[in-house]
Amino acid sequence: MSAPAHSTDVHTPDAVEAVVPLIPLVLPLVGAVLIFLLAFIAVSMA
Predict the structure, then answer these.
(1) How far apart are alpha carbons 35 and 42 in whole angstroms?
(2) Model pTM?
(3) Helix residue ranges, H only, the chain
(4) CA end-to-end span of the chain, whole Å?
(5) CA–CA dist 43, 37 (Å, integer)
(6) 1-42: per-residue pLDDT in tens?
(7) CA-to-CA dists, residue 26 to 19, 29, 40, angstroms
(8) What is the reported pLDDT for 1?
(9) What is the DSSP letter of 9?
(10) Cα–Cα distance between 8 and 6 in angstroms, integer?
């Protein structure tokens, strides 16, 4: 019997896994900025 092979692979964090926890904070902020920019454009054109 041979000894079980131990994996020495180091889990590198994925880019998507790093961004997912920030979505609840970033999404409303981007939405607010987008609404502000659209309102600014509408007021400036009026």
Answers:
(1) 10
(2) 0.59
(3) 15-19, 23-45
(4) 82
(5) 10
(6) 677 777 677 778 888 888 899 999 999 999 999 999 999 999
(7) 10, 5, 21
(8) 61
(9) -
(10) 6
Identify residue 3 by its one-letter amino acid code: A
- Joined together, the tokens standing for residue 25 give 């904070």
Indicate the residue type of 44. S
Q: At residue 33, what is the residue type?
A: V
Residue 1 has which token pair?
């019997």
Please give the structure tokens belonging to residue 33. 């900025």
Pair of tokens at residue 4: 């079980």
